[in-house]
Specification:
Elements (H helix, E strand, L loop, with lengths): L11 H4 L16 H12 L7 H14 L6 H26 L3 H17 L7 H14 L4 H26 L7 H11 L2 H6 L1 H4 L6 H4 L2 H21 L1 H6 L6 H9 L3 H29 L7 H25 L2 E3 L2 E3 L1 H13 L1
Helix pairs in contact: 2-3, 2-4, 3-4, 3-16, 4-5, 4-6, 5-6, 5-7, 7-8, 12-15, 12-16, 14-15, 15-16
Pfam families: Terpene_syn_C_2
Protein name: Terpene synthase
Length: 342
């Protein structure tokens, strides 16, 4: 099984239709130039430094957290975004060699680093992790630190699960299990939780338990992941990367990739409308004692994440519009290379 097996024929790749998602545009964070300088300078302290990964980290952080007013908070969160890209780089050997032991060893070292607060000097990714955690801890309560360690552990273990239980076994993730697993592995649960640092506000339990706020967090996480999956579908298809809901839908429903793409587009539109409705409900119906400027900043920032990631991906791939559809010249190159390698 490969991702290309979902194509009815190879020429189908060039005929797949991907539509633009949002009319709304966000501007990069006003501190993005400062962030670029500081984040790249931080990353150069580590032996695995990669300029392209650092620039991608700045791009995504600047758009996903476009409203962050305090640049030191933006930098702290940007270090996690940067770490996530480097984690993918460190996973490449295990993927290239189709090795379970290599992935198990990497994840074990990362989990141990989180739980003990220590790592071997030669484990560069572990030192990155400790440094970014130290930077985040400045802005977190003890409860938030505990929650962050728990979420990081889940994040790492889900990478191992997808690699060992799905990818190595030539299995796609069943669609009804997809969100639960990928929301952890993709980092979106962490990215949303880091919003508390960005806006300097953590909803108290009394507010979080309020149906609309709790549901907004869930729906915003689903929306961010769905946008990511939709816009990154083509390069993942070419690279034999199974981590997109479009492929899970096509595999589970036994339908064409175009049908799966259209379903994903409708899911995104549904989740966007749901998030907008929940945001409006919170603004209009939450009690006066809970409706604070901080809460509304939290809600608005939650919405901006999905618009921001959409714009960052658009800039990363340099999307072009052709007859109302998205296209990227690099996609043709990707599929040609993949076919040659096969």
């Amino acid at each position: 099984m490969t991702t290309l097996s979902l194509l009815k024929h190879r020429s189908e790749f060039g005929s797949l239709k991907i539509r633009p998602l949002f009319d709304r545009k966000v501007s990069p964070n006003p501190h993005h130039k400062w962030l670029s300088k500081e984040l790249i300078q931080w990353s150069k302290r580590f032996a695995d430094h990669n300029q392209r990964l650092d620039e991608m980290s700045v791009l995504f952080t600047s758009y996903m957290y476009s409203g962050c007013q305090q640049r030191v908070r933006l930098l702290a969160v940007g270090k996690f975004v940067c770490f996530a890209f480097y984690l993918d780089q460190h996973k490449e050997k295990a993927c290239r060699e189709r090795s379970a032991p290599l992935m198990v060893e990497l994840i074990k070292k990362l989990v141990t680093t989180v739980l003990t607060g220590r790592t071997a000097k030669e484990f560069v990714l572990g030192r990155r992790l400790l440094d970014l955690m130290e930077g985040l801890n400045v802005f977190m309560t003890r409860d938030q630190m505990t929650d962050m360690r728990h979420r990081l552990t889940i994040y790492f273990k889900s990478h191992r699960e997808i690699h060992c239980n799905y990818w190595l076994k030539n299995r796609f993730i069943q669609y009804d299990q997809y969100y639960e697993l990928r929301s952890k592995e993709s980092g979106w649960l962490l990215l949303v939780s880091l919003m508390e640092i960005i806006v300097d506000y953590r909803p108290p339990d009394s507010v979080l338990r309020y149906l609309s706020v709790d549901k907004l967090v869930t729906s915003a996480t689903r929306l961010g992941l769905a946008v990511d999956d939709y816009l990154c579908f083509m390069p993942k298809l070419a690279a034999n990367d199974i981590t997109t809901g479009v492929m899970s839908y096509a595999s589970t429903k036994k339908c064409s990739l175009q049908t799966a793409l259209d379903s994903q587009f409708q899911l995104i539109k549904h989740l966007e409308a749901e998030c907008q409705s929940l945001s409006s409900t919170i603004a209009n119906k939450v009690g006066a004692e809970s409706q604070t400027p901080a809460l509304m900043a939290y809600v608005n920032a939650m919405m901006d994440m999905s618009y921001g990631v959409s714009q960052a991906i658009e800039m990363l791939f340099n999307f072009e519009m052709n007859d109302g559809l998205i296209w990227c010249p690099k996609w043709d190159q990707l599929i040609v290379l993949e076919i040659i390698h096969k």
